[in-house]
Amino acid sequence: MNRIVLIRTDRVGDLVLSTPAIASFRRSWPKARLEAIVTDYTEPIMRYNPDVDAIHILSKSASKADARERARSVGAGADLVVALAPRTDDYRLAAWTGARRRLGYVYRRRYLSRLAAYFFLTDHCISEADPELADRYPDRPVAHEVHQVLALVTLAGGSVLTDELVLRVGDPDREFAHAHVPAGAIALNLAPRWFIANFGFEATVELVRRLASMHRDVLITYGNDVPDAAARLRDAVSAPNVTWLSGLPLLQWAAALAQCAVVVTVDTGATHVASAVGVPVVTVFEREYFRLSSQEWAPWRVPSAILCKPPLGVAPGPLIDDILAAVARLSATSIGTR
């Protein structure tokens, strides 16, 4: 093959988990020109990626007509187009390229998506990742998303596979992190799921206070999805060893997490960004669909702890204890190993 176009237009964490497949396409076809279509939001994940020759940015606000024209332009002359996400929007983009060979994958029980895959793609593979199947067959492991996406390389005929995440930051990002983040800090990434009923604001205050009392430095990061809760939290926690960073560009945020000894997060892209920069992770998953989520989106190839939210109405105190114990264990093991 001379030219391969890879498409992924959903979330940051999912694109990070697709980087082993992207690297595997490169290794399987080292002489091919490899191009990627991503969104303006996720583009930083690919900015310094050594495995792609060109990045094409599709605005998340692009109209259907603009998206169709962009896909047609990028896909002209491609030997292979691959939708890396199991979603109809990416299947449609693949179809709009007009490439003769278009691949993707789809969840077994997403019947409408399977129909879309038949319509838009020339071939696809089936993932068994499904909440009901995961609960119905507890002895059957759920494939991690890394392996689900890697299956597309095999489907395409590739045979040189790697499962290492790829996320590189630039020198300005590292300089920012070195200037603003204490080395070896414990990072807590805020997200809406910390503040919902099965954990809540007061429990988050308690978690931050106890982290600050047990560790020399704590870093709190958050984006524009929790500004009000973060402001209240900052007012409630007056600890001089807590650094607060908000609204960072994606690669500055990745570089900041890379400075840390452990990252604590709910089930968000922070799990996968931290994994990609080699930092141990404590991930707190929701109780609903825990068996599926804790396998499909577990921290990848780093020391980790996987915890579950309590049932609604159960006090979060024991979970806070478990988070703190996991942080203590992982921070001890990370010293001298990174």
Describe the structure.
- The chain has two domains: 3-156, 3-Layer(aba) Sandwich (Rossmann fold); 173-334, Rossmann fold.
- It contains 14 helices and twelve strands.
- It has helices at 12-28, 43-47, 64-75, 88-97, 111-120, 131-136, 145-156, 171-180, 201-214, 227-236, 250-258, 269-276, 290-296, 317-334, and strands at 3-7, 33-39, 54-58, 80-83, 102-107, 123-127, 186-189, 218-222, 242-246, 262-266, 281-285, 304-308.
- With 338 residues, the chain is α/β, with parallel strands linked by helices.
- It has a six-stranded parallel sheet with strand order 3-2-1-4-5-6, with helices on both faces. A six-stranded parallel sheet has the order 9-8-7-10-11-12, sandwiched between helices.
- 44% of the residues lie in helices and 18% in strands.
- Termini distance? 38 Å
**Helical run tally:** 14
Instruction: Count the beta strands.
Output: 12
Portion in strands? 15-25%
Please give the share of residues in helix: 40-55%
Order of helices and strands: EHEHEHEHEHEHHHEHEHEHEHEHEH
Strands in their spatial order, largest beta sheet? 3-2-1-4-5-6
Which residues form runs of ≥5 with pLDDT under 50? none
Whole-number tally of structural domains: 2
- In the CATH scheme, the class of the largest domain would be Alpha Beta
Averaged pLDDT: 95
The profile of the biggest β sheet is: 6 strands, parallel
CATH homologous superfamily caption of the largest domain? Glycogen Phosphorylase B
CATH topology of the largest domain: Rossmann fold
Alpha carbon gyration radius: 21 Å
